[in-house]
Amino acid sequence: MSIVTIVGMGFVGLTTAAIFAEKGITVYGVDNDVKKIKKISQAEAPFFEPELGPLLKNVITSGTLKPTMSLQTAIKNSSLIFICVGTPMKPDGSVNLDYIDKVSIEIGRCLKSANHPVVCVKSTVPPKTTEDIVASNIKKMGGNFGIAMTPEFLREGSAVTDSRNPHLIVIGSNDDRTHNIVEEFFRSVYGQTTRILHTNIVSAELIKYANNSFLATKISFVNTIANVCNRIPGADVDVIAQAIGADPRIGPQFLNAGPGYGGSCFPKDVSGFINYCKKIGYDPILLRATDAVNKRQVCTILDLLRQNLKNIRNKPITVLGTAFKKDTDDIRESVSIKLVKELNKSGARVSIHDPMALENAKQVLGNKVRYATSTIDAIRNASAVILMTDWDEYKSLDRTIFLKHTGKCLVIDTRRILNIDSDKNVHYIALGRSQ
Ligand code: UGA
Question: Collapsing DSSP states into helix, strand and coil, what is residue 141?
Fold first, then answer.
C-alpha cells in the first residue's frame, strides 16, 4: 500500500490526511508549526471541525497518521506527496504564493533521496502555478518526480463527511504514468465506482476557481433577489429560492440568502480569479459584480438597522454569531466581524456571542466589544439584536425571550432562522422578506 506525505496541516491537509489514514494508508502529516504538530500528535485538532476529533484519535492511536515537522523523513519513503499549504489573499486581492514557492523548493531538496514520487498540488492555485512554480522549483533542485494537480472541494463544518464522500475527484496531469499512479491511489481510497475526471494540469487549476466562483455567484444572485424582496411588500426570498431551485437547471443548493459569503475560500478565490483574469487581459465583469454584491451586503444590514433604530450611537447592539457560518470557529472574512467593526465606528455599544468562535473573535476585536457568556447574556438589554450566523442554538429564540430580556428591541435576522411576529415591543425583520 502507498505511503503518502501531506504538507500543510490546515483544514484541507489535516482532514485529507485523517481520511487517507482511516483507510489504513500510512500518512505523514507535515507542518512547520510546532504547536500544531504537537496538538495533532496528541490526537487533538488545532481547530474546531465536527467529527475530526474522534477520527484523529483513531488514526493517531493506530499509528497510520504520523504528524511530523521533518519533510525529509516524510518524503523519503512516500510515493505521493500532496501540497496543501495556504494560498491567502494579498492586500491587492491577488494570490500569495509564498508558501507554495517555499514548500516546493523544500520538496525539491528532499526529493533527491526519494524514488520518483508524484507531487500533487491540492492548494488552490492560479493557472500555471503547478507547472511554472511547483514543478519548476522541484526541477531546479534536481529531483525526479511526476506532477499533478488535484483540487479539493471539501467545506469547513462538514470537512470529514465531504472528504469521505467526494462527489468527484479531479486529476490534472500531463502524462500517463502520473495519471495512473494518482488514479490507482484514489481508487484504493474511494473504490472503483467513485467518479474521476482526468484532465490536464491547467484545467484542473481552473476547475477549482470556476467551482468556487460559480457558487459565490449563486449566493450573490440570491442576495440580489433578497434585497429586491426587502423593498416589495409580501415578497419572500425563500419561496423564490425554493421555486427556482426546483428547476433542475438551477438546483436548490447555495440559494440561501444571507449576510454575504465569508470564510477562507470564496472571498479569496473570487478576488484571486478576478486578479488573474485581469493579468491575462480579460475583464471578468460577472465576477466583479459577484464580489461587489457581496461586499455591499454588510451595508444592507447597516441600512436596515439605521432605518429602524435611527441613531445607533451609544445604543446597546448585539451581534449573534461571529463565525462565517455555523459549525466552525473560523472567523476569516466573516461578514459578522466586518459588521461589528462598522458598528464600533458608528459609536454603538456592541456585545457579541458565538458558541465556538469567540476566542478567535477576541484576537481581532480585542477590548472593543463585550463578549457575552451565553445567548441570553448577549441579548440582555439590547436595543437591537442582529443574527449573523445560523447556529442551531439561536433557532429557539422567540418573542417571549426577547421581550423578557430586552423589554423592547429590534431583531434583524440575516439568515431567517427565527419565526417571530412583530408587535410593538419586538420588531422582527428578516433579510429578504419585506416588513
Ligand atoms: C467553500 C466551498 O463550498 C467548498 O467546496 C470549497 O472546497 C471550499 O470553499 C474551499 O475552497 O476550500 P467553505 O468556505 O468551507 O467551502 O464554506 P461554504 O459552506 O461554501 O460557505 C461559504 C460562505 O457562503 C459562508 O459564509 C456561508 O454562510 C455562505 N453561504 C453558503 C450562503 O450565504 N448561502 C448559501 O446558500 C451557501
Answer: coil
